Amino acid sequence: MFVRIDGKALAARLREEIGRQVSRLRQHDLVTPGLAVILVGEDPASQVYVRNKATQAREAGMSSFEYRLADSVPQTKLLDLIERLNRDPEVHGILVQLPLPPQVEESGVIQAIDPGKDIDGFHPINVGQVAIGGPGLVPCTPLGCLMLLKHQLVDLSGQHAVVLGRSNIVGKPMASLLLREDCTVTVAHSRTRQLEDLCRQADILVAAVGRPQLIKGDWIKPGATVIDVGINRVEAEGRTRLVGDVDFATASDVAAAITPVPGGVGPMTIACLLLNTLQATCHQYDIPFPDDIVSRAWGDTTAEPT
Ligand SMILES: Nc1nc2c(c(=O)[nH]1)N[C@@H](CN(C=O)c1ccc(C(=O)N[C@@H](CCC(=O)O)C(=O)O)cc1)CN2
């Protein structure tokens, strides 16, 4: 039976549970988790994501601090702000929305964030921890993908996972997380040969290439689980529509389960950001972090059949 993996509903339940944990911290006068979001420039999609992050942080009972800087901001000014936030005791998580304008060097900005407050999990220390299977903050999109996969499949061990895309924020950390789960992992990219044949060997296919509806039904192994990370805006009949990297209509005839776009991985990215903020706060205050928070949020329910 085909399953449309409802990331929107699962993310809402996870945010509710995070909210319960935040109110527990506040009731005991321990701490109110604080999230600082920095937006440079006026990219319309980034503005929406930043607004949603701030709104959902407040809805979960966190403090939200937003900083909007001009597109032309010099790198030094951005680094000064990060340095101030690193020292601010009210701020437990910091993120700089990507992409950044060309005059700002992304890696220098990421490395300026205190690794303990790096709730995006992009700092080399957190990247290294994820790669060696150690503790640390895990990038939100791959973390959300893994949660959706575990909700769908329960045991990932021994499955052949093909990750399409090798970006630092999705493809590479996704591969590390799947290896941790004992998957056999293949990372494919624009230079990979016989891409279609490779995809057809995947029990788990994670598509993060940013190419609208590239992956058709006949690229997919029957019964595979497909996670679509793509968020592509396409023009159709005079309107802008959001589509993934997977052609949902043809893929749903073959796959056992797929995340839709919108309503799949995207909402999980922001829920995981709040989870990382809670985790970073607990760590900074030496408060035990409730590791079972996802199972508490989702209970024993299995994915809804369509
Ligand atoms: N600092 C960061 N920058 C960026 C990240 C990130 O994790 N950290 N990821 C993406 C953008 N992103 C979060 O920032 C993000 C993208 C999409 C969604 C989402 O909920 N998408 C909805 C559709 C929303 C729409 O209409 O556009 C969905 O898929 O249902 C959330 C967060 C790049 N930058």
Automatic annotation (TrEMBL):
It catalyses: (6R)-5,10-methylene-5,6,7,8-tetrahydrofolate + NADP(+) = (6R)-5,10-methenyltetrahydrofolate + NADPH; (6R)-5,10-methenyltetrahydrofolate + H2O = (6R)-10-formyltetrahydrofolate + H(+). The keyword Oxidoreductase applies. GO terms for cellular component: cytosol. NADP(+) binds at G165, R166, S167, I231. Residues 5-120 form the Tetrahydrofolate dehydrogenase/cyclohydrolase catalytic domain. One of its GO terms (molecular function) is methenyltetrahydrofolate cyclohydrolase activity. GO terms for biological process: L-histidine biosynthetic process; methionine biosynthetic process; purine nucleotide biosynthetic process; tetrahydrofolate interconversion. It comes from the Bacteria. CDD domains: NAD_bind_m-THF_DH_Cyclohyd. Catalyzes the oxidation of 5,10-methylenetetrahydrofolate to 5,10-methenyltetrahydrofolate and then the hydrolysis of 5,10-methenyltetrahydrofolate to 10-formyltetrahydrofolate. This is Bifunctional protein FolD. It comes from Halomonas lysinitropha.
